[in-house]
Amino acid sequence: MVPPQSIMVTALLALPLAAQPLAISPEAHGVTWDPWMLLVPIDHPEGSGQIAPAHSPEEELRFMGAGKQGPDLEATHPGKGGHKLHWQRLDPESQPRAEPSTAHIKFAEHFPEGINNTGLTDNAAAYLYRAVRAEEKTSLTVELGSDDGCRVWLNGELVYSANMERGVIYRDDSLKLELEEGLNHLLVKVANGGGAWGFQLWSKLEFTPAVRQKMQLGINAAIDRGVEFLFRTQQRDGSWAFHAGRYRNGQTALSLYAILKSGVSVEHQSVQRALAYLRQRRPRMTYSTTTEILALAAAHRDGDGERIEALVEQLVDWQQGSFGYPAGEHDLSCTQYGALGYWIGDSHGYAVPERSWNHLARSALKFHNPDGGFSYKPNGASTGAMTVAGLTVIAVCRQHFGEDDFPKRDREKLEKAHSTGMDWLAEHFTVSTNPHASGDGNTQHKYYYLYGLERLAALLGASEFGTHNWYWEGASHLLQIQGDEGQWASAYGEPEPNTAFALLFLNRATGTISGPGASSGQRNLYATSGEDAQVIMRAKGDTPLSLWLSEIQPSVRASHRREGEEGQGLYLEAVEYFANGMSIARMAADSTKLWRGETFAMQHTFSRRGVHTLQLKLHFADVPGAEGGRPATVSSALLEVRVDALMEDWMLDYTDDQRASLAISARKEMRASSTRGGNGAALAFDNLQSTAWVCAADDGEPSVTVEFRRALRIDRVVLSHCSGTQIHFGKYDRATRVSIDLGGKRKPILFDMNPDEFRKTICVLPRKVRVTRLTVRVLDRLPGRKFPGSVGFSEVELRLGDE
Fold this sequence. Notes:
Oligomer: single chain
Number of strands: 29
Distance between the termini: 51 Å
Strand content: 25-35%
CATH topology of the domain at 28-202: Jelly Rolls
Number of helices: 16
Largest sheet: 7 strands, antiparallel
Low-confidence stretches: 1-28
CATH class of the domain at 28-202: Mainly Beta
CATH architecture of the domain at 28-202: Sandwich
Radius of gyration: 32 Å
Helix content: 10-25%
C-alpha cells in the first residue's frame, strides 16, 4: 500500500510546499546576533575620563579575530571589591536573533547574584560581548549610546572610542561594522565615573514590501501552530488550566479570545466548549471578567449582550477610582483591564456612569512617574508593560470623552502624562524584553507587554513608537522564539497565557472590537504529494471538508488518449472519493466529452474527530480505438487529514460536570497506594480536570480511596484518564480495566475503561447504593511513552441520576 501523504499548502491552487511551518524573519544583510554576555563590575579608577586602561577581558582580543574561537566565556576575571566574576548571559532566551536591538542596559541592575551594587558602580567598567554571524561579507551601520565612556572592538580591532561623561542616548553615535563572512566577535567596554551607568546598541531593520510579504508567510504559519497548541492544551471540560483555581474563567477566556482573533470559526468545537464552560459560572476577578468580555465580544453571538452588560456592571461595582483584583491593593494592571471592559461596554451600548469614567481617567495619574513612565503601584519603577497600560487607560478614556469633553479638571495633567509616557516608550523601546522591568519581569511579562503594545498602537492608530516599527519588529522576534510545539513560553514556562498574548499581537487583535479575526488562510489545507503522483487531490477545511480533483499528470493523459486525438486530453466515466477505505461519493462524468479540468468538487462531514485517510479514484471511459494496456482506473496517493472542529454529542456534557459530582461536599479523607511527585489523591476529587492523582512508577497495584463524612446515595462512578489534554495523551500509562470497591461486604465491580483518553468512562452500578467509602483499583493498563508505570485519574466523580 502507498503510505499516506499530506502537506499543507499556502493557496488553493499552489504547488505543494513542505509541511514544516515557515519561520521567516527579516535578517538584516543575512546577519544573526547571539545574546549579550556581560562582565560587571571591574575596578576602573580612572572613571569616565580615561577609557583606555585595559583589563583582563582585553587580553583575549587576540582570540577574537574573524572566524576565531572568541573569548573564554567560562574564565574567571578579577572584579571590583575583590569579587571573582564570570560572564553572564543577559537574555535568558538564548536563540540568536536577526535584530541587534537591545533595551537600555543598566549595569547596576545586572550585578551577579550575591554581589550588592552599593559602592561598586562608581569608577568601574563593564564589558559586553556577543558573537555576530554573517552569511556573506557585509557592512552594517549601528547606532549606540553609553554612560559614560565607551570602546568597541570588532574582530579584535578597535573601531570606536569615546572619553566623556554623558547619559545614554542610543543615537549619540553611529558606527559602521565591517562584518566578515561567518563568525565575528563584538566586544564593548563602558567605563563609569559616577551616577547612572548604561549602554544601548540599535540598528533599524528595513521592512520593505518584499520583506513583509516573505514574513507574512511565516506569521501565518506561526499563528496556525500557536492555535494548534491551544487546541491541544484545552481540557475535557472546555477550560484551560493556567491558574484555573484562582482565576476560574481567566485563561479560558484569554485562550478563546486569541483563537477567535486567529480566524477560528465560532462553530468550532473548541470554541463551543469554551463558551459553554464560561457560561457555567461568573468570573470572580477583574482580569477574568474583562477577558471574558473580550472573548464574548469576539464571538459576536446573539444573546451574549446581556452577559456582557452584566459583566461590565460587575466591573462598575468593583471600581474604587482604580481597580484591584478586585480585593486588596489597587494596581495599574488591573486598572487597565477595568478600562478595557468599559471600552467594550461602550461599544455595546452599556452606559458606564460618567463618574466611573472620570475616576478611571484620574486614577491613571497616580501611577505616572517623574521619568515619564508608569509603574505597577504608585511610586514604583517604570516598566514597558505598565507604561503601555497607563497610556491605554488614557487612550480608552479619550475615546470615550472625545477631545473636547476630556475632563477639564485633569486635562492638562493627562495630556502631559500621555506625551511623556510616549517619549519614555520611544526611548526604552524593545521587543525582546519588558523594558526597564527589574529582575524576573524582564522575560516573564514580555508577552503581556507585547500584547499591550499592539493594543495601544491600535487605539492610537500608531504604526511606530519613536523610530520603531512595533509590529514588524515584534513579529520578527516572535517568529524566532516560537517553541517546537507551537507555544511561546518564558523562563517560567506559562505557555498558555504567553501563547495567547503572542497570537493576539500577531493577529493585531485590537483592530476590531467585536467579531472574530481573519483566518491566516493556511490552516487545514492539504494536497497529495510525491514525484510519482499521477493524480493530485486537494482538500480544505474541517467540518465540512471540501475535496476536489486538482490535476491529472500528462503521462496519464497520454496513456488514455484516443487514436488521432494526441494531446487533446482524456475521457472520464466517473470520479470516486474514498474516506478511510470506504466509498463516500461517486460523481458521474460525461464520457462523450474530453476532460477539460473539471474539479468534481464535493464536501464531506466526518462523524468523528481525529485523523482520516482520503483517496480519489478516476474511472476512465471505455474508448474504442484507445491504445491497449491502459488501466481502467487510476488512484491518487492516500491523503491524511485531521478533523478537529467537529462537535461530538458528548462534548458539551463535560462543560458542566463540575456541578454533578457528589463527592466534593461530603469527602472526609482521600488516600492512594502511592503518589508521583505532588499528584496526590485529593486531586482526583477536586472538581478540576486540570489536576490528577498519579501513582508512583513502581506501584504494581495502584488504587485511590475516598471516605465520606456521611453516606452518599449513588448509581454511577465516572472516571477520567489522568491525561486530560491532547498534548499529554500517551505520556502516562492508560488504565484499561478497573475495579470499584463500594465498601462493606460488597464485591468489587469490574469495568473496562474507554480507550479514548479524552472520553470519560461512565461506570453504571447495578442499582442505587449508599457508600461511605469508595476505592478504585487499576487492574490492567497500557504503558505510557514518557512516564511508564505511572497511571491515575484526573477526576473520580460520584453521581446519582440527573443530579
